[in-house]
Amino acid sequence: MDPDETLFLAHVSSSLVHWSTRTPNAPAVNGPAVDGAIRVYHDQSAATWCDLVAQVGSLNEPKIRSTHSAAACEELENLPRGIINPSGRRKICWDAFVCCCVVYLTMTMPYSMGFNAEASCHILGGLHLSDKPWRACIRFGIDFVVDLSFLLDMFFSCFTAYQTPTGALVGDPWKIGAHYLIQWHGFPVDFISTLLPYILRFCNIKATLTKITKFVRVIRLSKLFKLTRLMRLRSKKNNPTEEPSLLFQPGFVSAVRMLLTLFVIAHMLCCVWYWLVVLQHQRGDPKRVRHWVNANSLPLKTTRYKYRVALYWAFTTMTTVGYGDIAIVNNTERLVAMFAMIVGGACFGYIIGGVTSILENLDLSSKTHNEKMDAVEEYLYDRQYPPVLAAQIKRHFNNIFTTDGIFDMQDILEVLPATTANDLVYTCYNQLVYNTSFFQGAHCEFIVAVAPNLLPCNANDGEFLFFEGSVGTHLFVIGSGVVSILLTALDVNSVGHYDLTRLTTLSGELSGDASDNIRIPSPVGFCCGTFSAGQILGDVAILLTLINPFSAYVQHKAILYSIKKEVLLGALTGHDPFRTDLMQVASEAHKQICNRRSRLNGSPSTMMGGANIEKNEESPFVATSGYVNAHRGFGSNSNNAAVLEISSLDFCCQHWIIHPELPAKVTWDALICFFIIYSIVAITYTICFEIIERPCSPPTNIWMGMNLCIDVCFGLDMILSFQTAYFDKSQTLVFSRKLIIRKYTSGWLPIDLVSTVPFDKLANCVFKRRNAGFRAIKLFRAMRLVRLAKIQQKLKLGELAEHVEDNLGINPSILKLLKPLIVMGAVAHALTCIFFRASRRMRQSKKRPTQYLTTMYWAFATMTTVGYGDEKPSLNSASSLIVTIVSQVLGTMIFAYVIGILVSIVTNLDQAKRQLQAEKSYLSDFLCEIHSISPTSELLLRVRRNHHHFLLISGVFDERRIVDLFPPHMQTVSTVYVHRAVLPYLPLFSTIEKKYMGAVAIILRSLRPASYSSGQIINSARISARELHFIVKGSVNVLYTTCASKCATDTISDEMYGPQTFFGDAMILTPTEKRVRLKIRIVCSSRSCHCFVFCKSDYNTLRDAYSLVAQAIDEQLDPSYIKRWIR
User: What's the whole-model pTM score?
Assistant: First the structure.
């Protein structure tokens, strides 16, 4: 080590030792010596660093510029004179022109080699190797211009700056030349593909001229390596962060690239396939040589025809269809065919992978949305939620993913600096922050912590957000709409009378198992105010009282944002002044509520009971939705009546406007959609199969009668559209007749006119002779295909599938199977009509239905790549070959799409079972890695048993994370419904729920299922677990140790606990900071014991957020167990 560095480290380390062990007698630190050592070390290190940088040329090479700096555009202009900017507009245009030349060579070079159609023009000897001299001269001229362009490109490449892997731009001419010579795709490829063919061609070697000519043709194929220019051009973008246009979207570009790649490979295989015929001709008499051209009777056909047949064979092989109509007659062709099969298999896999990748990356947002919704649907199906509640939860998640997006902003904010995170949050939540009084005066750090955690939810008219006496768990921010508050005439403590038995009864009602004679009482309440957009709701319960002093229901459809109490309190930490202001506002609101309650208790109208309200016919009722049908009505003296959500039928009778959700209107739209699909199939069939009705004649068969009825229904639907209300972007129902007419005339009316008015029948009456206006009739009839766009207006397959899934309880994956089947049927019908139109050889021998089924059979055989070969295109029909090639590529892509969906469906057919198996496999692999435990050990059996029980009770999904995203007013009912089977075994919670409504849901989320086997020790002095156990099944024994028995009185003996009991009071009541040592041992006495465990850490968390609930738990525990169980 350097002496100065040693001195520096010694001084510093010695000073550090003195600082860490400073005593009054410690020697003083030599300050000047330390400063001198630092200065010498810094100077020498800086000099060494400068020398190192100078050696790599960074200091002495001003021509290297960083493209990632802010002044990158200015630095590019400072390149040395004569050096070309690789990102300049002119250079990009030149590279695009060179790429066009490369594409031209890609198509012409294999064709020239394979079909022996080399275009050459001898200046002195005339034309060579061409049947048509002018075509040969044109091709030779184009090839010469292309080679000249490549020669110029070689010259330009010697003076074009290049970028290093680190992004630095090199402009030194010597380094540019060396870089161009060294690159494998630079000078070597350009020289071999551009200069070497001309050098060999003009060599004066007469004996080997023929061999040199053939060798030159092979050498010219090296020009295909210039395809790397396409990749180089693709990487040049002036602004990488710019949003690409529609034509340059990743999905569209990937699809075009895949199709071009397939065509290039097929073109090369086609040329190689015919090149075998050329080789056979060069070896002997063309008429006696055995090859596929002679075997298929094609020797007298033109070159263009043979190319088309060879291309058809290439695509048939690549798509693995293989009709077998092209005969293979020699060994060379068999070898090439086997190679083509390998290439075809690779292409088939490439198509499947490409289509899957395109579908996955085509719309990442939609893909992520579908995955998250699938997870929610699988969870609801696994937990067997009732249809009504499941439909509400799905609508809520759709609203979340639509309003708040499907990406987690917290993950993005964690990697951003504070200034960028603040700007992003303020940009995303601009209107909410500036229109909400809650955020006025708040620090930006608090806004950044709270705003991304606001969960959006929609609430319909009459829907209760929370009830008086329930535990406040969320703070609501009203985005739009009106929320009314409801006070009862009774005291707040007497409102929370809904015990756990009634909640369990309600769960049975949701599942259809409850008796009809049990009802939840409905106390009378008065509407005492409203909250509108920009105000907050629930702050009193969150900050002051824990329980809600009033009920809140939606008066007008509202958009709300909620945040959990725990998150809000955590965000308020460190913002004491703001928290003080919030508590002051909440205290004032609480005083107003207390004053209003005092006036209500003193009013004689508060003495009305529920029966009196039912008898009063003029008393308005509130339509509640949720898990409690409480607070049914207002008193007759209420000044602010609730706004009710009238039914769609009453809406129609009141306004004479059709409601879009009227059941009859929904049925009518479904019928119109069926007619649309039928008419599309019928129109394509009649056009392609040339079926024309008699001009100006009434219907003569069922076919014509159905078409006439469908046209009448479409006309009637146009009339109804002028009388149908609609929902705007804010989901507000618009029933103004002027707005309805304006929207319809500016939107769907032109499409409905084109697709509904029978222009084909009118044209048929004008052109009474069939041949006179046959094409015009087909054109008018094709206009009716616009009906397909009406499906977007009428049909909502997603909502229909959700409705069927919710009401029938079908696995979501089964419904997804219908989509690929419908797509395959539609594509097969289209290919059937197009192929029949292109191929006319079956029309005279068979009837129309037989022709249709036969062609449909061919379409499915092509799409599924089966290709039996009994139905195949005619080699003499160019249109049928082209349609077959397109059908093979399109059918293979559709088949790949179907395979991808089927794989996804099979993988997720029973996601819960698959997830359970994966969890068990993970546990098995984990236990196998523990070599210190025997495979037959009892510990492994206990771990497996408890793990299986945990997954069986809690499920394989992250239930807590999913339920936290539920609307706050749905979390309680969903939690109670999931635990409906075990709630009767937890009587402690019934007592707490009587006092604090909603507390049971808070406690249940903190419980953890556990399973014990016979003789297993649950707790002891060695374990001292801080847990409270609730027994659901089985029993346990509490055994006092010998030492404890001697000290115990006669009244203390061994204890036994069974179902509906709990034990572990002392472990919860003992303070956390106190060390616990038990003097008892708890053992499972039954064959198995199933419990729910409540840990001390969860209890502490509950106490911090909901102190009154924790106090209620303390009141149910026996403190005498502290002395009896703990030493």
Answer: 0.63
